Amino acid sequence: MRIFNFLIAILTINLGFSQNYFPKNDGVKQTYKNPVAITNATIYSSSTAKIENATILFEGDKILEIGTQILIPKNATIIDATGKTIYPSFIDLYTEFGIQKPLRKSSNSKSPQYDSERNGYYWNDHIRADFNAFENLNYDEKAAKDLRETGFGTVLSFNNDGIVAGTGLLWTLNDVENNGTRILNNKISQHITLKRSSLSGQSYPSSLMGSMALIKQFYHDAKWYAAGGSKSKDISLEVFNQNKNLVQIFNAGDKLNILRADKIGDEFGINYLIKGSGNELERIEEIKKTNATLIIPINFPEAYDVSDSFLAEQVVLSDMKFWNQAPYNPKVLAENNINFALTTADLKNPKDFLTNLRKAVEFGFPKEKAIAALTEIPAKIANQTNIGALKKGNLANFIITSGDIFDSKTTIQENWVQGNRFVIEKIQPSDIRGKYDLTLDSNKYDLAIEGEISKLDAKISQDKMEFGTKITYNDPWITMVIKGKDTISSNFIRISGLKSETGLSGKAFLENGKEVSWSAVKKSATTEVKKDAITDKKEEKKTPVFYPVTFPNLAFGNLTKPKQETILFKNATVWTGEKEGILKETDVLIENGKIIKIGKNLPQKGKVIDATGKHLTAGIIDEHSHIAISNGVNEGGQNSSAEVTIEDVVNSEDINIYRNLAGGVTSANLLHGSANPIGGRAAFVKLKWGYNPDEMLVKDAPKYIKFALGENVKQSNWGDIERLRFPQSRMGVEQVYEDYFSRALSYQKEWDAFNANKGKIAPRFDIELETLSQILNKERFITCHSYVQSEINMLLKVAEKYNFKIQTFTHILEGYKVADKMAKHGVGGSTFADWWGYKYEVNDAIPYNAALMNNVGVTVSINSDDAEMSRRLNQEAAKTLKYGGVTEEAAWNFVTLNPAKLLQVDDKVGSIKVGKDADVVLWSENPLTIYATVEKTIVDGIIFFDLDQETAKNETVQKERNELINLMLDAKNKGLKTQEPKKKSSGHYHCDTLGEKCREFHAKYNN
After folding, report:
1. Which residues of 285-322 are buried (b: 16+ CB within 10 A; e: fewer)?
2. Any idea what the Cα angle at residue 795 is, between residues 793 and 800, rounded to 5°?
């Protein structure tokens, strides 16, 4: 079928180019096109070059001349465009126009698919590098008409399906010619997305981090394949390498994904053309630094219908703000000198494009920038010198408008594509608007024709009785359908006729079918009712209210990023976490993000905070967290996902960051879930609310990876149809580790041999085995999800066999049974304070677990594994006083110094000590009481949570909501489109959460 499609595409192209030498048997062969001169127009030959009273002369599909002093050939067709404006036709570099999408094979199986179904291609079916758009075309005249009426003449089409989605083509919206003429470049682009292919049910990838890892591995494999490393043919890699010099377009679809895509490009030396989503203004500084060229949609959201106060509560503040801010996005991009093209992508109806474009201009997007983003810039990106501007030798692709394209009353009247004329409305239509005396079958009526010339509205009345009327005008022909006097029955009068110098006249058919004559004479100006003077005045446009972007751009965001301060805490009770213990009435000075001095009566400096009667502690560190992760905590599509990393998907916009700060948490170890024995790599972050993901990452922290044991990895609770993936038993879990670590050893030997110059072609770079090699080399450390003592014992033996150490057993609810072995191995335990009995493998859990492990020398921490619990880790630590009788200082170290030790960052954080990072929390009283509240949370010397400001922040949230609700109500009252309120639920990830979406919702202002 693929070969057949390819041949059809080639034949179609050849037909177009072969028309000059193919025989013609269905008529005469000679065809002539006279030159065409469009005169007296205002012509924008480019975004900045405007020529008044100019002529454009072209013949066939090529422009011959443009200017004010052009000699027009005698045989030219002349079109007078007095009062009209001509622009280059628009170019859209991101469409699926005319693509005939392949169909997925039907299957009755509900079981997951783990392996590829395609032989001879890449091992993952979501890689579709072999798809060529030009082989799968179905030119859609209706869709082409819609795009032309919006101003477009040329589009780039591709199939937006798959992680690597194949190639795109550039072609024109030319109904007259065939593909041989339309196609300007049959392979112009290669496309990357973060979306799985709809043609495959293969389970991997099932998360954003999995998609990113797959892209990276594919790039490594492509390089290895090009060097001759593969012994077998791989069509996907082969065609990808052939197309690597095409324009590389990455569908990011979100502000943070733009940053992620750019990082992949930097890693592999690729300058992507990145398609955004319209929210770039929320991270404009970071996006500016990428120096990337973007494709920007202008699918501005409609106002929410918030007339019902209860339904209005479902709309989160971030969505309300984005409705207000979205039209400013092009302006902000332009102000920051970011190179971008505009697209109709993501619009439900491309006819909304002009409306939104005009709105963007109204909100400050410069007109010349708007024209450039639709003409010159996309042409330059596509390396096409014959489109995007009106000059000699270029294609005759242009639009004729009734005026300034950015005026809401302006209409596009014609769109010329490759010299072919497509009339949208007549350039010089007769204006029949006005008031008339209508005579119909000897009866007198009043006729008023109003509205825009392109969309007329008629009203017929008699003695204050109005008749429903619909009018159609196609100069000089006029038709009207009039509802009869009997409003109950469905009887109509049908009128048709012509405009003449004396008025309107023609024939009509009455309700009974009788044919009669009619005429309408325009009333003189003196007899017309004068318009109210108010209507003549242009309504004064109010400057749109712009709600400034906050960091992050949601509830409780900051107008500016908080900065480091010099802060002196006076007379605090200081929990040092060190041998000094708890110090009374002590001062602590922090400066430049570090703890500078600890003592009594320190001289005043910087911001002085009276901490008398209050407690100052190190910030809480959550050793096991799943907050601040984008689109999936598990990559469960295969039994090992060591190639993925949470560092790729840190979500700086998660409201749980702020909530954790309000609970005294300053750092968190973001872990992959427990869907497979070997999970993904972790990310250690500081909770810097409003900062970007890279700024949150602690880059010099030791690197970790998540392993898992027990029910989750063997899919015990996934349902019978899911239980296909190895392993399905606890014995199988051990074999997974044996297999992967033995393979990692072989992988290392292969690379060692190559590096010793024993090989000519480099071995395949395998991200997964590279990561496991780091474990063997003690460069990466394991934190392992665990419950049952037998499995804990098993993994300790595997580690000892392969000569590495397990750093932490997390959960470890049967740790008290093997605490002695843990202490001997040197592994820590990060556990829950009092969780038990929530599934079968935790039946033996006891709340004394932490204390018992601590008593035999195991480094113990209390973790959350939950975005709600992490806000109260101080109380979780306090439970160990009851269950085990540990001291207050030891209990507090369970959530501060001990997790720092487990994460090997105790030289920087975890206690209050001179030289350490200024990650501290001020509590209203003893942090181990249920009455303690956080008053200030400071990270790297920056105040990220301040209870003193909390009331003001809540008031700001309510104020902004109320103001935005009023603006939305005003939009509805003006007749603008609205959408139904939608509840936006972003719940919490846990170890066993599958897929990209969170499963629970716990917040009023979640976003």
Report:
1. ebbeebebbbbbbbbbebbbbbeeeeebebbbbbbbbb
2. 95
Contact partners, residue 203, CB within 8 Å, separation at least 6: 112, 113, 114, 636, 637, 638
Peptide linkage before 476 cis (omega within 30 of 0): yes
Q: Which pLDDT does position 108 carry in this prediction?
A: 72
Cis geometry, peptide bond prior to residue 327 (ω within 30 degrees of 0): no
The encoded tokens of residue 532 equal 């109210």
Residue 716 is which amino acid? S
582-591 vs 594-599, strand pairing mode? antiparallel
Closest CA relative to residue 825, chosen from 846, 845, 842, 803: 803
Higher pLDDT, 510 or 991: 510
How big is the CA angle at 489 (ends 486 and 494), to the nearest 5 degrees? 75
Q: How many CA atoms lie within 13 A of 719 on its CB side?
A: 5
Q: Give the separation between CA 95 and CA 110, rounded to whole angstroms.
A: 33
- Strand ranges for 14-163 from DSSP E: 36-44, 50-59, 62-67, 77-80, 85-88, 90-95, 152-157
Quick: pLDDT tens for 906-951: 999 999 999 999 999 999 999 999 999 999 999 999 999 999 999 9
pLDDT at position 21 is: 63
Residue 326 structure tokens: 């979205």
Question: Quick one: tokens of 438?
Answer: 């209508």
Instruction: Please report how many Cα atoms fall inside a 13 Å half-sphere around the Cα of residue 38, on the Cβ side.
Output: 26
Question: Is residue 784 classed as helix, strand or coil in its secondary structure?
Answer: strand
* Residue 702 clears pLDDT 90, i.e. is over it: yes
Helix (H) or strand (E) holding 266: helix 255-268
How far apart, in whole angstroms, are the C-alpha atoms of residue 24 and residue 963? 69
Phi, psi torsion values for 262, nearest 5 degrees? -65, -35
- Pairing verdict, β 503-509 and 492-500: antiparallel
In whole angstroms, what is the distance from residue 140 CA to residue 138 CA?
6
The β-bridge partners of 78 are 37
Total number of residues shown for the chain: 1007
Residue from 628, 553, 653 nearest 988 by CA: 628
pLDDT for 78 beyond 90: yes
**Residue 1005 and residue 556 in contact, taking contact as beta carbons nearer than 8 Å:** yes
What pairs with residue 521 in β-bridges? 437
* Contact between residue 667 and residue 917 where contact means Cβ atoms under 8 Å apart: no
**Residue 464 backbone dihedrals phi, psi, to 5 degrees:** 70, 5
> Which residues are CB-contacts of 496 (< 8 A; sequence separation ≥ 6)?
477, 478, 479, 480, 506, 507, 508
Q: DSSP string covering 356-398, please?
A: HHHHHHHTT--HHHHHHHHTHHHHHHTT-TTSSS--TTSB--E
- Whether omega for the bond prior to residue 552 falls within 30 degrees of 0, making it cis, is yes
Q: How far is CA 354 from CA 151, 300, 351, 391, 409, in A?
A: 8, 12, 7, 25, 11
Looking only at the bridges linking them, the beta strands covering 434-440 and 443-452 are antiparallel
Element (H, E) at 182: helix 179-182
Alpha helices per DSSP H over 802-932: 819-825, 849-855, 873-882, 888-893, 897-902
Only one residue has tokens 């009594």, namely 600
pLDDT of residue 27: 66
Q: Is residue 414 a contact partner of residue 426, using CB atoms and an 8 Å limit?
A: no
Please give the distance of CA 976 from its chain centroid, rounded to a whole number: 26
Q: How far apart are the first and last CA of the chain?
A: 48
On average, the pLDDT of the chain sits at 91
Tokens of 751: 């690379």
Question: Residues of 437-473 as b/e, b for ≥16 C-beta within 10 angstroms?
Answer: ebbbeeeebbbbbeeebeebebebeeeeeebebebeb
